[in-house]
Design a protein that fits this description.
two-stranded antiparallel sheet, 8 helices, globular
Length: 150
Amino acid sequence: MSLLKPTIKTPFHIDFDWWKQNERDWHVFLRSLLCSEHQEAFAEMEEDIMIDWIDPMTAEVKQVDGVQHALMSHCALLPEFTDVHTAMVEAIFRNFLVNGNVPLSAEDLARKLGRPADTILRTIAGPRVYRGLRPYQSNIPASVSEGEFG
């Protein structure tokens, strides 16, 4: 991890290695974000079901977690997934899930969430790591930075 202090232009992402090291029930947590329809559909499935997903920007086929796919393609589109009343960390985390964990800066997140960039930066760049939200490092394996939950 870099020792440089992040700025509002520093890209962040969800560091799923952090999740795996600090939260044993990370997959259970992700399932809790699903809408009731998908919670029922995934109830009997194993935790690590991978599916093919086509990136709409590049047409590249990627292996992604089935739960993440359901979140990205359906549940996140529901009005109740995130709104102005959603807590800051939760809104940021959900935004990364929706966009396939593509790195975003505090400025980018501010435009998407309608919240001040400096407040977002203070929240996710402090000494405490919330929900694995960490500065993006280009030397992180591509499978982690591209949203593979492995």
